């Protein structure tokens, strides 16, 4: 082990000890292989030196980018402190004593510092979304109403859905795909034909199946570098008929949720959050063995569609909910229950049931904020954690500014460790960028 000045560090070096901030807070774990983002974070904290594993001379890091800029040119501690304040506000309701909370705090802080450094280098003030207040509010099982007048809670999710005839009748291609999923005798060609009916949908799915995620799967199965998937029949062979049809089912309804006024939510940012939750859910399902990864992807993609519907059908209620969430520093789902009488997850679940989505997928959406309700929580727990990861790390947003409390029962049901979650996140981020390009090729992401 050797101690090196932070300005002497190179990408590829490995930390020999946990790195702590000057205030004694945990920053990076022992064993971290440094990349350029880590180097910027260490500079931002103005750390004098850190312990790294010895290398065989300078050649051990020869492929790195070379020495980073001197500390005098690095952002100061104020930037790092502001980043930490923003992250602590975002994670206000998360138990930072839990191993999952510790991991999400560390990963969120690294990425918040990185975003602020990048913004500052681009000529901005180094400020991004977040809050500066750090005191924790008094928490109750049900938040109290603010004094501001607001509409009375709604009767039920079903009543809200009756007022939106457009959403009661999903696209024709959706109905065709649903028939394939419900018919146990459906063939590979049946699945391909149902998707081929919509050329735009087919193109999106082919881009998705040609992503690195499925390329790795094909290499593992076939033992060779796969050729490009250029037909739906081949895509069905790669992913599986029912799995591809499930993916198509979710993607086919996305155009119904594009016309929300920007003063409610930026739809580009909304879909970044949804895709972030989807790729996290797919990875978590695969790693934990809790549910089908493709089903988890679609559930993550659609987990907040109830919020879009609420913005459209109950704007006064949602305005009151957003005001309450901001004033009382609550997760938005808490305020939704107070103002609407139910939250977006319950509303989204009712919509998916009306559309006859697979029951397990509907349950994953309906209960991802209410894990006390379902008899078996393993599949909803996947979306519960994935949503927390996407919100904590700032992948887009759907109007919610705070990560909800992580259910210990959900964490236990998934059987993951904090280290395992941390190792998955870089691949999730890469997949987020790739999937955004698949869905929105003219507007790649993330932001």
Automatic annotation (TrEMBL):
Q: Which segments carry the region annotation Disordered?
A: 120-162
Listed InterPro entries: HD/PDEase_dom (IPR003607), HDIG_dom (IPR006675), HDOD (IPR013976), RNase_Y/CdgJ (IPR052340)
Compositional bias per record (Basic and acidic residues), positions renumbered to this chain? 129-148
The record, for Pfam families, names:
HDOD
* TM region positions: none
Q: What domain of life is recorded for the organism? A: Bacteria
Q: Show where the HDOD domain sits.
A: 167-371
Q: What PANTHER family is this protein classified in? A: PTHR33525, RIBONUCLEASE Y
Per its UniProt record, what NCBIfam families does this chain match? HDIG
Protein name (record) = Putative domain HDIG-containing protein
Q: Organism, per UniProt?
A: Desulfovibrio sp. U5L
């Amino acid at each position: 082990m050797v101690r090196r000045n932070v300005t002497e560090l190179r990408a590829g070096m490995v930390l020999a000890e946990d790195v702590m901030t000057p205030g004694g807070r945990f920053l990076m774990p022992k064993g971290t292989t440094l990349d350029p983002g880590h180097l910027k974070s260490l500079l931002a904290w103005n750390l004098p030196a850190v312990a790294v594993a010895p290398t065989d001379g300078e050649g051990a890091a020869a492929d790195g980018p070379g020495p980073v800029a001197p500390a005098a040119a690095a952002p100061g501690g104020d930037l790092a402190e502001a980043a930490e304040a923003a992250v602590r506000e975002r994670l206000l309701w998360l138990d930072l004593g839990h191993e999952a909370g510790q991991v999400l705090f560390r990963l969120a802080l690294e990425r918040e510092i990185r975003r602020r450094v990048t913004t500052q280098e681009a000529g901005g003030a180094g400020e991004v979304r977040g809050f500066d207040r750090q005191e924790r509010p008094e928490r109750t099982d049900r938040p109290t109403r603010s004094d501001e007048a607001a509409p009375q809670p709604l009767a039920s999710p079903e009543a809200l859905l009756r007022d939106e005839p457009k959403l009661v009748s999903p696209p024709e291609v959706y109905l065709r795909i649903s028939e394939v999923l419900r018919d146990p005798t459906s063939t590979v060609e049946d699945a391909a034909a149902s998707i081929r009916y919509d050329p735009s949908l087919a193109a999106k799915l082919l881009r998705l199946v040609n992503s690195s995620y499925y390329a790795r799967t094909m290499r593992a199965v076939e033992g060779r570098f796969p050729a490009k998937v250029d037909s739906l029949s081949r895509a069905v062979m790669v992913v599986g008929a029912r799995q591809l049809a499930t993916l198509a089912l979710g993607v086919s309804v996305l155009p119904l949720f594009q016309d929300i006024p920007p003063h409610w939510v930026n739809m580009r940012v909304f879909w970044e959050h949804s895709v972030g939750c989807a790729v996290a859910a797919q990875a978590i399902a695969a790693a934990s063995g809790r549910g089908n990864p493709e089903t988890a992807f679609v559930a993550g993609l659609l987990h907040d569609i109830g919020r879009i519907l609420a913005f459209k059908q109950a704007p006064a209620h949602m305005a009151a909910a957003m005001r309450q969430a901001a004033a009382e520093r609550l997760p938005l789902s808490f305020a939704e229950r107070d103002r609407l009488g139910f939250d977006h997850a319950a509303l989204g679940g009712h919509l998916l049931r009306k559309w006859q989505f697979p029951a397990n997928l509907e349950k994953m959406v309906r209960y991802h904020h209410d894990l006390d309700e379902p008899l078996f929580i393993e599949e909803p727990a996947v979306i519960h954690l994935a949503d927390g990861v996407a919100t904590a790390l700032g992948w887009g947003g759907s109007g919610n500014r705070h990560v909800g409390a992580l259910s210990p029962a959900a964490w236990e049901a998934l059987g993951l460790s904090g280290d395992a979650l941390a190792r998955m996140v870089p691949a999730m981020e890469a997949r987020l960028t790739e999937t955004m390009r698949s869905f929105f090729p003219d507007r790649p992401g993330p932001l």
